[in-house]
Design a protein that fits this description.
The chain is about 40% helix and about 20% strand. It binds NADP nicotinamide-adenine-dinucleotide phosphate and magnesium ion. The site of NADP nicotinamide-adenine-dinucleotide phosphate has 32 residues, from helix 7 and helix 8.
Length: about 475
């Protein structure tokens, strides 16, 4: 059974209740986590506050950097253990789970180096005055993490928060907590003080809500769905608590007739099958120049037919979806496609040996999806790619911008002037040109516009969000 981690100690929940953990590859229960409550959150916030007040806030930035570097090294040494935990928890194929553990180490490495590079300014002002700004930590930060990339999102969120000098209380998704509990233990091992990193597991509407409401939380970083993002903002607004929101996306891949398809097509496939399509930045809409629409769909269809889903340990193109309700959600979208005569170009397969009790979905390519259809508007969060043709650049921009989301856009074209025009015209937090998120981008600020959220995590920019600016004006004559 898994326990909360509060004040560098493993703790049972005061509720006395647990939640079963399912392995998505076979639907079997393999562990239990604590079903925590508001009392446990209160304990964690107190531990974090005490840590902050009694030493952490006075710890020199360089020392915080050394601790984060030690944690990075510990995670790197424990990659096999961590990826196995997350693989079981989330149903990720081995290469994906391993890449996520490696990325976690890289986040801590990046933020280790950032700690002592964050500083304020001096500002010219009236004669006889000196004005300076300090970047100060908020104090205790709350972090609500989704199940799709627990290690990566934990790394980018608490990595930035700790680098800026905050103490953290983390609420992982109930579907995927195991790797994070283990990383918090590793942090204690390498010398993080008690209360710097606290993990409290449980249901979002119980323990997540209690975290968002707690008056001792000074900033909330939320990654998850737009609807829960709204709830978090409403709760936080009551006490004017700042929030960073990383919400969903319906990201377009825009392919012009002059694109290098040998480079584009594998990236387009990967962007929708990675993590079985359960990725905020999944390239879930495919916008293609009508001049190459048919030949492109033919090539892409042949690639989709070869894709295989199966148990995580088989390390195929994709594993199962996270849970039965997610599988049902994808099925509902696909039955809408059928009811509305939206044609399927191609579908991959689920391997025969995949247990029937697992939550599998074969990757699916749909064509001529009307821009206003819910398949083209809402996050499916499964391996379903919706293709549509565009007439010209203006039409491509109009289609790309025609959803409530604005997280990522991919543009594939050899025309340099068009690359810049498209980058300017797309309403999106990120635009990738002739690549799609290559290299992981730990250094690159990440976040959305519109219903994809606001504020940025990753990169140095995240440190702005995890701090508040204090202006000091001194009259000295
Ligand atoms: P979700 O249902 O919004 O859950 C996200 C987190 O919020 C979970 O830890 C959840 O806990 C918790 N939660 C649920 N209700 C809550 C409440 N009333 N108060 C406080 N916390 C609450 O989203 P999800 O289904 O896990 O994740 C998928 C969504 O996240 C998609 O929309 C995806 O695009 C988005 N996402 C965005 C990014 C990004 O960077 N932009 C990255 C990854 C995912 P429980 O699950 O334990 O109930
Ligand atoms: Mg699980």
């Amino acid at each position: 059974m898994q326990l909360n981690f509060i004040g560098n100690a493993s703790q049972v929940s005061s509720s006395g209740l647990t939640i079963p953990m399912l392995d998505p590859s076979d639907g079997e229960v393999f562990d239990q986590i604590q079903r925590s409550n508001a009392k446990d959150i209160d304990d964690a916030v107190r531990a974090a506050r005490q840590c902050f007040d009694t030493g952490w806030s006075k710890t020199p930035a360089a020392e915080r950097g050394r601790l984060l570097m030690r944690l990075s090294a510990r995670v790197a040494q424990g990659v096999d253990e961590l990826y196995a935990l997350e693989q079981r928890d989330c149903g990720k194929p081995t290469r994906q789970a391993r890449a996520d553990a490696v990325a976690l180490a890289r986040y801590f490495e990046f933020y280790a180096g950032a700690c002592d590079k964050l500083h304020g300014d001096t500002i010219p002002y009236l004669d006889g005055y000196s004005v300076l700004t300090w970047r100060e930590p908020h104090g205790v930060t709350g972090h609500v993490i989704p199940w799709n990339y627990p290690m990566q999102i934990f790394g980018r969120s608490i990595g930035g928060a700790l680098a800026a000098g905050n103490a953290c209380v983390v609420k992982p998704a109930e579907d995927a907590c195991l790797s994070l509990i283990r990383v918090a233990q590793m942090a204690a091992e390498v010398g993080f003080p008690a209360g710097a990193i606290n993990i409290v597991t449980g249901y979002g509407h119980e323990v997540g809500d209690a975290l968002a409401r707690h008056p001792g939380i000074d900033h909330i970083s939320f990654t998850g769905s737009p609807s829960v993002g709204t709830l978090i903002q409403q709760v936080a607004a009551q006490r004017h608590c700042p929030v960073t929101l990383e919400l969903g996306g319906k990201s377009p891949q825009i392919v012009f007739a002059d694109a290098d398809l040998d480079a584009a097509l594998p990236a387009i496939v990967n962007a929708i099958v990675q993590n079985a399509g359960q990725t905020c930045s999944a390239g879930s809409r495919l916008l293609v120049d009508q001049a190459i629409y048919e030949p492109l769909l033919e090539r892409l269809g042949a690639m989709f037919e070869k894709l295989r889903a199966g148990p995580a340990s088989m390390d195929l193109d994709l594993g199962p979806l996270i849970r039965q309700s997610q599988q049902q959600r994808v099925w509902d979208f696909l039955s809408d496609a059928q009811a509305d005569n939206i044609s399927m170009v191609a579908q991959g397969s689920v391997v025969d040996v995949a247990p029937e009790t697992g939550f599998y979905q074969a990757p699916t390519l749909l064509r001529d999806v009307p821009v206003e259809h819910r398949l083209a508007q809402q996050e499916i969060f499964g391996p379903v790619l919706c293709a549509m043709a565009f007439r010209d650049e203006d039409h491509a921009v109009a289609l790309a911008n025609a959803t409530q989301f604005g997280l990522v856009a991919g543009v594939w074209t050899a025309d340099g002037a068009r690359q810049f025009r498209m980058a300017r015209r797309l309403r999106s937090g990120q635009v990738f040109i002739n690549n799609y998120g290559a290299g992981g981008g730990v250094e690159l600020p990440f976040g959305g516009v519109k219903s994809s959220g606001y504020g940025r995590e990753k990169g140095f920019e995240a440190l702005q969000g995890f701090t508040t600016l204090k202006t000091v004006a001194i009259k000295h004559g």
